[in-house]
Amino acid sequence: MGNLRNLMLSASILIMVLSSMAYANPTRASISSFLVTTYNVSPATINSMSIVNLTLGSSKYAALYSATSLYLLVNVTSSQYAIVTNQASIADAILNYTINENYNKTNMAMIVADMHNFQESSSHTLADCWQVTGLSSGLTCTSSITCAACSFELTCGGYVPTIGSLVSNFGTQAAFGAVASFSANATILNDSYASFYLAANSINSTNIASRLATMNFAYKNVSLASAGISADPLFTISLSQSQLNECIATTGYPNQPSYCTAYDYCGVLSFNQSALTAVGGLLSEASSLPLTYSQVLTLAYPASENAQMIVEPVITKAKIAQLDIILNTTLRNYTSMVNSTNTLLGHYYNLSLAAQLSIMKSNYGNLTSKYMSENLTQQQANFAIQVEKFNAIYKVINARYENLTAQSTNNTLLLISAQLNASTKDPKLTGYAIEQMQLNNQVSGSISNYNSLKTQLNSISSYASSNYKAQISPAPIALAIYSPFARLLTSALNAPYPASMQFAPTAGAILTIIIGIIIILLVALYHGRLQKSKKILENKRTERNWSIVFIILFVIVLIAAYATMSYLSSVPTTLASFQSAVRGSGSVAIVSNGTDAQLALCAQQTAAKLTQMGKKVVQYSISSGICTSAAGSGTANSCLNSLASSNMPTIMLSISANNEITINSLYGTIMSVQGTSNFMSQCYAAQLA
What we know:
disordered N terminus
């Protein structure tokens, strides 16, 4: 309750101080208009406040109070009003006025009068004791063993040795302890009185805090010293009833016991404790008032908190809007810049680019976490410069890396094309393919040897470009002759798609046999006409020769059929043939065999490439043996057999543990691309179509 009373008193004094500094302007209407319009403060809240105007130097303020508590401080120095949010600034504005008023309200005369009353209540007894103990002689008594002052005084010198046996009564360890204790406490008491009155007499509004501190310290010493004196055996020897009776019955020294002469040696001591208590109360009340900067700062805290709650939402909204502009203009691509740069640095590290990225990330972090305290206009200008520097370095490094990746991809395509167009396997080509695979791994990894890598890529590019182009071979002619019959015959069999693919070379052999039989029949027919026209002699030798011819022809047909089947089983359909079929067809089918994400992405990229070429793309998806397209669904075998029979160029994409690209034009014109998800992400199908 005492602290609450002091706080209420402090607030009341503060209001009176501010009220005394009032001036005509600003009006409640102008303050209300400012707070309502700018910060959306409720008019009812403002109307419930008392407004006090004050001046500090050249600055003017309006203080709003709710009851006895400072609610808000508004700086009204100019037409541009502003709520004071800083706790220290609020304290600065009210500090001097608070101290001045508190000085005026402190009843110093009453405090001094009460201390005088306390001092006078015991002054005569203490003065007499000072005399009889010999302390008035100027000699000291600072030891319980020797006491010059007491020894000098005849009465004290003859008395004190007799009290050495009364340790329990005096509470000391030696004969002179009581006098020594009195000497020390009396000295402290007198010095404290002097300090107290000196501070009280010199107090003013500029030093009230320090002077009150001195008076409080002196008051505490007076309390302790007077309590010590009150407990001194010189004033408080306590005798039992039997001892008192003995003293009364026995008279005269030395017959009377020593404790009889020690009883109330310095007289009866009576301090006015109520006066000292009053001094303590008045000092406590005066010290509880806001007299220092730290105390006024505490009073300013609630007003600072209220100001923050009112101002911050408005400032925050404006700051966020300004921050959004920076993030949507200067830094609109920040996330993609960081991600792409981290990816680039992971492949091709550059110290300058890494440093610029670090600076930009650090400043971005400060901006987004400390935007309330940042000068956003300056930050936007700084970021514009940083982004420009960053982009300049990024473009150079990224161009170098993209040049490597583009050349690496182009080399891979050249080598794939060379392998697909080659009629036979070339060990040198295979060696280059293996070397390029290793280079691809380096390019997709972390590059530390740019120049060496570039040289190797140039070497492979030069060799593949100059030595491996589409070769002329009999394969396209054979495929053109046999594939229609293979498609027709395999379709008639209605076998599963893999079986149909395997049967296609056999179908070619059957066609060869059919052609051979036709040729043999034509020869036989020719032989019959010759016989009928008598153009050949009919004898055994002639018959035998013709029989040999027919046998030879039959063997040739069988050999041709076997050779055809063998050739068609191993004939490398060239990439050029497939690309020619794509160019000559209005529609191209894409079959996605699986549900892998990279497979689906490659299907989309391939479809986009074919669409740009002006082709109609028909997409099929195979999953769990079911083939689905825009036209409906069916089994995978029926779907693939249908595509093969239509001879529509088809690109089949499949996920497999082995990376492989094969082309078949015997039973349908199909380019099959299969491999791992990582291989599929390269999407060579889109680049080879």
